[in-house]
Amino acid sequence: MHMRKVIIFFLLICQSSIGQILLNEIDAKELKSNIINKSLNTENIVSEFVQYKHLSFLEKDIISRGKLIYIEPNYIKWKYNYPFNYECIFEKEKLTINNEGNINQINIGSNILFKELNKIIANSLKGNMFDEEKFNIEYYEHHTNYYIRFVVKDISLIKYFSAFELLFDKKNYDVLEIKILDNENDYTKIVLFNKIINNDIN
Amino acid sequence: MILTKRLLIIIILSTFVSCGFKELNNLNIYNSSKNKIENSYFSNKKIDYNYIVKIEINKKNINGIISIKKIDSIYHRIAFMSEFGYKLFDVELSKDNFKWNSINSGINKKNIKKLLKDNITNLIHGNNNINFAYKKDNSLIYKSKKGSNEIFYLIDETNTLIKTYNINKGFKKRFVSFNKIKNNIAANIEIQNFNPSITIHLEFLNN
Predict the structure, then answer these.
(1) What are the distances in angstroms from CA A56 to CA A72, A109, B80, B89?
(2) Which SS3 state, helix, strand or coil, does residue B40 take?
(3) Is any Cβ of chain B less than 8 angstroms from the Cβ of A106?
(4) CA distance linking residue A106 with residue B99, whole number of Å
(5) For strand B161-168 and strand B139-146, is the pairing parallel, antiparallel, or unpaired?
(6) Is B113 on the interface with A (CB under 8 A)?
(7) Count of Cβ atoms closer than 10 Å to residue A126 Cβ
(8) Residue B16 falls inside a structural domain
(9) Could you tell me the CATH number of the domain that includes residue B36?
(10) The pLDDT value given to residue B143
(11) pLDDT confidence bin for A109, thresholds 50/70/90
(12) Which of A172, B92, B151, B180 could be disulfide-bonded to B187 (CB atoms 3.0-4.6 Å)?
């Protein structure tokens, strides 16, 4: 009995120090269902973002900023305004790049990387990427957030990414952060803010 | 016999016209005690040398960000990423070794890898030993020769490295121009490759 108390005490210390608790199956199922419901009601998203590129050998992350527009089901526009003016639009199987006035259109139908990246980002923005054939999924709870980790198991994807992590607002199941892990050391983190959902977009 | 001579003269003349950098004409030999040259623009271990990259090839532009970091006295680590942050290649460069940590399958081709390796090596290291020294106007030019590869280092009157010229087997390969130099950082760098013609612009990213 005494030993059990000691183990529980240490488990509690570990949990509070890590700051996140792995959800049990019932809670994970409920969270997943709430996120899917939210995503089904999402027709468009307009948000500002900050992108942090973390490379383990650098002192500081490389920061880019911009605005993104997502329109259901497969239109995503990334408009970078720092450190460069650069715009790219993923729409269906086409990628259009506007590089300071030079417009270039690329068919991404045969490009696995772009096709999957486009799909993953679209699903991440809505929060709905619960594809258990492609990912091992772990659900965690924070004080104010939920955090879901998608570890890539699909061989065609694993050479590009090792995992994705999404951070959700606990109150409304909005996606706050998307983290794409290249490997265990390097990642790209996109933090969304000033997000407007289902507004009129002309 | 006359035809052979003429042909030889035409070949020699066309070689002079096509392979030389005009800046390297009319050099006067200079007696220098210096026997090594360093490129110090990527030498501070505390600095992340991040640059916005614009590559012009066949009237098309490719953009990205390159990160160069001196890890220790032996090697540099270099990674190139797309605007999205997706890593296209990751290499380690030391004086005698060039190691590929990763490369995207779309650019994992022998000729592209050689071009990248040559450009990165020229940008950061080049050859270090000086074989000849020259003087032209107020500038000094050091020549470093390794096999068929020759690199000329142009040093201005303030003792600053401002340009390198790379010639291989007598043909001009590329030049690297270091501009807007402040606190030993070249805020603007231009690399011009010849055959194939590829221009690479680098702008220092201070974030």
Answers:
(1) 35, 33, 14, 14
(2) coil
(3) no
(4) 31
(5) unpaired
(6) no
(7) 21
(8) no
(9) 2.50.20
(10) 94
(11) low
(12) B180
- Asked if A53's CB is within 8 angstroms of B81's CB, the reply is yes
Q: What is the pLDDT of residue B1?
A: 44
Tally the domains of chain B.
1
Residue B55 lies in a domain: yes
Count of CB contacts below 8 A, A vs B? 62
- How far apart (Å, rounded) are the C-alpha atoms in residues A85 and B52? 11
Distances (CA, A) of B37 to A42, B49, B140: 61, 21, 12
Kindly provide the ipTM of the predicted complex, given to two decimals. Answer: 0.82
Q: Which CATH architecture has domain A22-197?
A: Clam (2.50)
Higher pLDDT, B12 or B170: B170
Report d(CA B19, CA B203) in Å as an integer: 29
Q: Is residue B8 part of a domain?
A: no
- Determine, yes or no, domain membership for B178: yes
For A105-124, what is the mean pLDDT? 71
A129 touches chain B (CB under 8 A): no
> A8: pLDDT confidence band, cut at 50, 70 and 90?
low
Mean pLDDT of chain B: 87
Model-level pTM greater than 0.80?
yes
Provide the residue range defining the domain that includes B192: 21-204
- Provide the pLDDT confidence category of residue B13 given band limits of 50, 70 and 90: very low
